[in-house]
Amino acid sequence: MSLQDKKFNDQAERIAFDKEHRRRLSFNIGRYDEAVARGKSFYQNLELARDRAVHIRMKTLLNLDKLLIDLESKMTARGTKVLWAPDANSAVKYVLEILGNANIKSVVKSKSMVSEELELNQELNNVGISPIETDLGEFIVQQRGERPYHIVTPAMHLSKEDVAELMHERFGLPANATPVEITYWVRNHLREKFIEAKAGITGANFLIADPGAVAITENEGNGVFSLSASKIHIVIAGIEKLIPTLEDLDLFWPLLAIHGTGQHITAYNTIVLGPAKESEGKGPKEMYLILLNNGRTKVLAKSPQRRALTCIRCGACLNACPIYKNVGGHTYDTTYTGPIGSVITPHMRGMEAYGHLSFASTLCGKCTEVCPVKIPLHEYLLFNRYEAVKAGYVDSKWKNAIKFSQWALRKPSLLDAGKPWMRKWIMQTFVSPLWGKRRNLPPLPEASFRKQWLKDHQENR
Ligand code: SF4
């Protein structure tokens, strides 16, 4: 058992029985489910939209090498500096160099899972640069020193009372401040930060090969503020975020909004073509696009799991997953959580350390059912499991139990041997501990299936 596996199990054991945690997640996901059902009803033919999305994303993925070069040449021609980061360290190095050269001491950030992947806030703090999260949910989890709980709703695990208490402790707001009061306060607080900051860091929901652009979609306007109020705009994006043309946003923006939050379209949708021209006056004078690999080509090399790179990060599979709903986001201890995280993380960060995530699934298939780009997530979890077992990264207790079962089940006479109480004793002594201390083994019948069948068969002759 790897260290991460043990950590996962210990944390899951603790949180799965925390009734308050379960209540909060059920409440928030329940509201999400209602909104998504309403959102989906506006599609005349959702299946067709999903099929088109699958086709476009797969075609893009299979032509990634060519399309990324197209993106680079078009963005470079309009003044963006495109930087290729093979791993997290090189991406962080680029960011620190850009900010260091401009002597920048604070930077505003909009929500970006890729920056979480780089642990960028920590890296910035280490060199004396203050990162300021400007998405409300991200701002809250930053104040708590936590990573986001969910890829779309970072503070999903907190109640309004938790947030009021936090804001009281951190900023002296009334202990019983309402969500509206807190939001107004944060809005004013951040406005000053936007104006002071000389640089903004954003992610990208999509990279558009033609005409070479970055598409950012968000609900609070903080993303567009982060980039437009600053002199330097740094975009950090995974190489898999590509779509071929501007027209494809027509399909992907609503699909992402509906599956992410149930909205028909997200409130603020921005397409950035490059730094501001002299004639435009305001806007960032420098723009950098850091294209991050960090294990993505390892996923691309996997067949069939490469299709997981077509994910548009809507979070629907997390909300549908019974494991996520019980163990919550922090238990995964990874950037990408839930079913999609369990599929890609073992390839991006190593099967030995993260293979256990592929076993954190009931394989019910709900994740596959809700995915807007139809990624067969539960099947890929099985492929991952196969790889983990083949590579020997499975707990020896389980390996021995499976070997023993294989041996015993091939010997029906063995299963019939002995008295029922002996069989019961064997099951309780050897199988029950593996089954889990909170689960009761089903009662054993007096006779084996084989004996029962033979008896019925003979009686009915
Ligand atoms: S795998 Fe599918 S459902 Fe899950 S986040 Fe990605 S696009 Fe959404």
Write the layout of secondary structure elements.
Elements: H1 3-15, H2 19-40, H3 46-62, H4 64-77, E1 81-85, H5 88-101, E2 106-109, H6 113-117, H7 120-126, E3 130-133, H8 136-143, H9 160-171, H10 179-196, E4 199-202, E5 206-210, E6 213-218, H11 222-228, E7 232-238, E8 242-245, H12 249-260, E9 268-272, E10 286-292, H13 296-300, H14 316-320, H15 322-327, H16 338-349, H17 351-354, H18 366-370, H19 377-390, H20 396-409, H21 412-416, H22 420-435, H23 449-459
Parallel strand pairs: 1-10, 2-3, 2-4, 4-7, 5-8, 7-10
Antiparallel strand pairs: 5-6, 6-9
Helix pairs in contact: 16-19
Report on this model:
With 461 residues, the protein is of the alpha/beta class. It contains 23 helices and 10 strands. It has helices at 3-15, 19-40, 46-62, 64-77, 88-101, 113-117, 120-126, 136-143, 160-171, 179-196, 222-228, 249-260, 296-300, 316-320, 322-327, 338-349, 351-354, 366-370, 377-390, 396-409, 412-416, 420-435, 449-459; strands at residues 81-85, 106-109, 130-133, 199-202, 206-210, 213-218, 232-238, 242-245, 268-272, 286-292. The strands form 2 sheets. It has a 6-stranded parallel β-sheet with strand order 1-10-7-4-2-3, with helices on both faces. Helix 16 runs parallel beside helix 19. It starts with a helix and ends with a helix. The mean pLDDT is 94. It binds iron/sulfur cluster. Iron/sulfur cluster (SF4) is lined by residues 259, 311-317, 340, 370-373, 375, 377. The site of iron/sulfur cluster has 15 residues, from helix 14.
